[in-house]
Amino acid sequence: MRQIKFIPRVAILCLVAVTMSISLPLFVTHNVIGAEELSLIEKVKYFFLGKRPSKVATGRQRGGARRDRCPNVPDSLTALVPFDVDGVPFVEQTISDRPTFWFYIPYLPVSRRNAEFVLIDENEDDVYSATFSLSQKEGIASLQLPLTVPPLKQGKKYQWVFSVICNPLNRSGDATVNGWVERVPESSNLNSRLKVATTREQVSIYAEAGLWYETLATFATLWKNNPQDKYLTKDWVSLQQTLGITRLYSKEWTLYFLPESAKNVQQNH
Predict the structure, then answer these.
(1) What domains are there in the chain, each with its CATH number?
(2) Out of 36-40, 57-61, 132-136, which region has the weakest mean confidence (pLDDT)?
(3) Which has the closest alpha carbon to 186: 111, 95, 255?
């Protein structure tokens, strides 16, 4: 086992920004009564942000990482996941066997940094681990798992750890964020609703079901396919700000196809 598997036993150096400007009630419930009239962004905030009962990964502390050889940047490396008032990420659910993970990466390609993504099961064993090159400009990036990764098991929680390698000779200086994902079964009712829904309606359906990874991915796709919609663009920027991107509001994103093997360093396609 590699050293990173022992992350649950030590303080993780997370660089999750904690700026949250939420005007909605500081509670979240999956009861949709009263939520139908909310706008798309308000609905996403209603179901995922603010005070939420349970589902918080235990033993996670946020804190500043030593930058070592990483350049100073106005906004830190940020995981696009909901978190509590202490900056601790929630255990978010998905129905996907290989969900896509989203981050704000503040480093320019001229820095020639590599990044590492690791997926760890409840037994602290690596399900997947790979290193790849950060070849694109700063901004939002989505990380897509290869089909060679074993599908996530229903009812199981997995920790993911994303690191920008600042100094290959001293990994203690990595800029790192982490979070949790739990795969849950897809109900027949959810499947039926999604089949007849528009992309905009799918965002609401996923939000009401508490499926963060599907909500974010569908929201991003909806915005990308409708760049002329100024209200949707405003919502997309608002969501980024709420999740901790305080300075640069990315109006696009980079898709990284993660390598099949940990021995490969892959450029973005």
Answers:
(1) 12-257 (2.60.40.10)
(2) 57-61
(3) 95
- Closest C-alpha to 104, from 227, 249, 267: 249
> Can you tell me whether residue 47 is helix, strand or coil?
helix
pLDDT at 141 over 50: yes
Return the higher-pLDDT residue of 135 and 206: 206
DSSP string, 115-181: EEEEEE-TTS-EEEEEEEE--S-SEEEEEE--TTSPPPPBT-EEEEEEEEES-TT-GGG-EEEEEEE
Q: Kindly report the pTM of this predicted structure.
A: 0.78
Unique residue bearing structure tokens 């999750």: 16
- What per-residue confidence (pLDDT) applies to 253? 80
Distances (CA, A) of 138 to 103, 119, 135, 189, 250: 11, 23, 9, 39, 9
- Secondary structure class of 74 (helix, strand, coil): coil
